[in-house]
Write a structure and sequence with these properties.
The structure is a single chain. By secondary structure, this protein is mostly beta strands. The chain folds into nine domains: about 60 residues, no CATH class; about 60 residues, Wheat Germ Agglutinin (Isolectin 2), domain 1 (2-Layer Sandwich), CATH 3.30.60; about 50 residues, no CATH class; about 55 residues, no CATH class; about 45 residues, no CATH class; about 110 residues, no CATH class; about 35 residues, no CATH class; about 55 residues, Wheat Germ Agglutinin (Isolectin 2), domain 1 (2-Layer Sandwich); and more. The protein has ten helices and 58 strands. Strand 6 and strand 7 form a beta hairpin. It comes from Arabis alpina (Alpine rock-cress). This is Phorbol-ester/DAG-type domain-containing protein. Keywords: Metal-binding, Repeat, Zinc, Zinc-finger.
Length: about 675
């Protein structure tokens, strides 16, 4: 495994699970997948965008020799070489600290005797001798032989490698003694900070004076009761630098001011209340975490690169991510081509907005993302259908037998479309214009437009299965309808534009909580739409009515409504389809079905392993029974299975929803045995 540093040179990385993935140099404060520790300041590291793996630079090449132990397969005490293990296969405890060894961080194990330790415990083992322990009057020595014992400090039984007082014949847990009873800290030189266990005192405020982390998140913290000064375990034992001399942060040397003080950070423009770095001659103050931000980055909210500046100077500007007003006198990111596009420093460098790769010395090129070549005014050649030309039809005439769009699988209705002059290939005009590559608000990289081959994908934005065109980035897939959403997003149901500012929210249309949502940023509005509801067609055609059905955005009615398809009660406050001429009210899912984005009649050979299926119109009489729920299939599009590995070979089998299909094939003992175990 290798990574490239900012100078382009290769650096060997030893902690990545997948040796064929390249990694890029990255400065970040995120939790390391190497040791499981989240630094409170930005640290050097390496990042794999393909599998979202981040390792600290200090963890990338750890030493192979750890600490001595007595191997059960060896006659003598010796240094053992510990190798990387993936604890997704081994669930055990660290033999040093007795903490759980989880599969999301790196661990080491001796395969000779089974000794296992965290990377952090291997890198920073407990001291072999403690001269001044906090719970005892004599010197303690770390035993190199495993034993069962009762800790003289906490009174609990333990096993493993204890500290022992040979004068008193007492033993102690490593975690009970490895932290000093008091420390002299550069942030608080007047008095020593004493070790505290349990809940912090009521008068303390309960947070670390430096990083504002909750003290209750740690088993131990350090506190001076005279000055009411507290530091969490990490800040007390690994103090940050008192001086910061980094030209990427400020032109002059910065000094840490470890006290409670209200300020506005000159780097990110956000307020702070403690321990800033200051430059007195410039009246400059910054959060202690605002370090190492790249100068030029690519975000998923803008087509161009954005650059960091120490002074925005743009009055009444709004952040392009959180949509909140920015302080023109502070720093941030802006586009040199589009000066009105501005971003808070921390918003632009959010993990879901940018990969934070430094682009300062990378020339920005205007990429050709046009999806077709223009033949004449009404004729094009699309890159996903190069064998024939497509001709534009703007007649707006509805023909029910026309078919559906090959990109989104939705019917054409009254829309303009491109029709192949030699075959049945057809595209909405809007789908045909989707670019070959584009940034997207739900991912930090660039998504590429492709045709789903052989099977189908599930859209990460709306959760619907589809098999038309797909925007993909590694394992992330988005259908073209969701990918067409851009900011600001305007919907007929609401007077204000909507934005993707942050994940999670309860949709105002269906009253369900979803992860990816669009929000109104107007004060006290609170209007939210998930991607599925935001893209419901304004009008649809269904066999239940001769007219087009229109989307209703809910009513404050007291009467009871009933869906004419499923004959169940509907909630008038949620969205539904209606025909005002015929007075019918229909659930949106009953009208569209869960397989609305699957192309009719196209075989799905690997929709699930061993299962061959296709989406079909539910237009037979009588309607088929669902093979799972045993109810009549009422949705307009259902799934037809023509082959599987089940003992029952009574084909075809029909499924009304993805839920029924998944229950049948993913949660049966037979299917799990034949598909996953084989």
């Amino acid at each position: 495994m290798y990574a490239r540093n900012p100078d382009g040179e290769k650096t060997i990385i030893s902690l990545h699970r997948f040796a064929d993935h390249p990694m890029t140099h990255l400065k970040d404060w995120r939790r390391g997948d190497c040791c499981g520790i989240k630094f409170e300041t930005i640290t050097d590291g390496y990042y794999c965008a393909k599998c979202k793996f981040f390792t600290h630079k200090t963890c990338s090449n750890p030493p192979s020799k750890m600490f001595p132990h007595l191997c059960s397969n060896a006659r003598y005490r010796e240094y053992m070489y510990l190798s990387y293990i993936d604890t997704r296969k081994y669930i055990t405890k660290c033999d040093v600290c007795k903490g759980k060894m989880t599969g999301d961080i790196q661990n080491y194990k001796c395969y000779k005797c089974g000794l296992g330790v965290h990377l952090e415990c291997a890198k920073y083992p407990p001291p072999e001798i403690i001269d001044v322990p906090r719970d005892h009057d004599h010197q303690l020595k770390l035993e190199m032989v495993e034993s069962c014992f009762t800790c003289a400090a906490c009174g609990k039984d333990g096993d493993g490698y204890p500290y022992k007082c040979h004068e008193c014949d007492l033993t102690f847990h490593v975690n009970c003694e490895k932290y000093p009873a008091e420390v002299i800290h550069p942030f608080h030189p007047l008095h020593p900070l004493k070790l505290f266990k349990g809940e912090p005192p009521d008068y303390s405020g309960g947070t670390c004076r430096y990083c504002e982390e909750k003290l209750s998140n740690y088993k131990f913290f350090y506190h001076c009761s005279t000055c009411n000064f507290s530091l969490d375990q990490n800040c007390a034992l690994n103090p940050p630098p008192q001086y910061l001399d980094d030209p990427n942060t400020h032109d002059h040397k910065l000094t840490l001011l470890p006290r409670l003080v209200s300020f506005t950070c000159n780097i990110c423009g956000l307020s702070g209340d403690r321990s800033p770095y200051v430059c007195l001659q410039c009246n400059f103050m910054a959060h202690n975490t605002c370090q190492g931000f790249p100068w030029v980055i690519k975000t998923n909210r803008h087509d161009h690169c954005v650059s960091r500046t120490s002074l925005l100077g743009v009055v009444n500007s709004v952040c392009g991510v959180c949509r909140k007003k920015m302080d023109w006198s502070c720093g941030g990111y802006y586009c040199k081509r589009c000066p009105e596009s501005t971003y808070h420093t921390k918003c632009a460098t959010r993990y879901d907005v940018s990969d934070k790769r430094e682009m300062k010395n990378v020339p920005e090129k205007d990429e050709d993302v046009k999806p077709f070549k223009v033949i004449d005014e009404n004729t094009i050649k699309h890159f996903l259908h190069e064998e024939h030309n497509l001709r534009l039809d703007k007649s707006g005439i509805f023909i029910e037998e026309r078919g559906s769009c090959k990109a989104c699988a939705y019917p054409i209705n009254h829309d303009s479309f491109y029709n192949c002059m030699s075959c049945d290939f057809i595209l909405h005009e809007s789908c045909a214009k989707m670019p070959t590559r584009k940034p997207y608000v739900l991912g930090s990289g660039t998504f590429s437009l492709k045709q789903v081959e052989g099977s189908c994908s599930r859209c990460m934005a709306c959760g619907i299965y589809y098999n038309g065109f797909s925007y993909t980035q590694y394992e992330s897939n988005i259908d073209v309808r969701c990918a067409s959403i851009s900011e600001p997003f305007v919907h007929q149901s609401h007077p204000h534009p909507l934005f993707y500012t942050a994940p999670k929210g309860v949709c105002s249309a269906c009253n369900k909580e979803e992860y990816f949502v669009l929000k109104c940023v107007e004060d006290n509005c609170g209007y939210i739409l998930d991607f599925k509801c935001a893209l419901l067609p304004y009008e649809v055609k269904h066999k239940v009515d001769d007219h087009f059905l229109s989307l209703s955005y809910g009513e404050n009615a007291r009467g009871k409504y009933q869906c004419d398809i499923c004959e169940k009660e509907t909630d008038p406050k949620t969205w539904f389809y209606t025909c005002k001429d015929c007075k019918v009210n229909l659930h949106t899912d009953c009208v569209l079905g869960e397989f609305r984005a699957l192309e009719i009649g196209r075989e799905l050979t690997t929709f699930r392993h061993g299962v061959t299926s296709m989406a079909v119109h539910n237009n037979t009489m009588p309607q088929p029974l669902c093979n799972q729920c045993k109810s009549l299939c009422i949705f307009p599009i259902i799934l037809k299975v023509t082959q599987d590995r089940m003992p029952d070979k009574n084909y075809p089998k029909y499924y009304c929803s993805s839920k029924c299909f998944d229950l049948k094939y993913l949660w049966t003992t037979y299917y799990l045995r034949t598909v996953f175990i084989e």
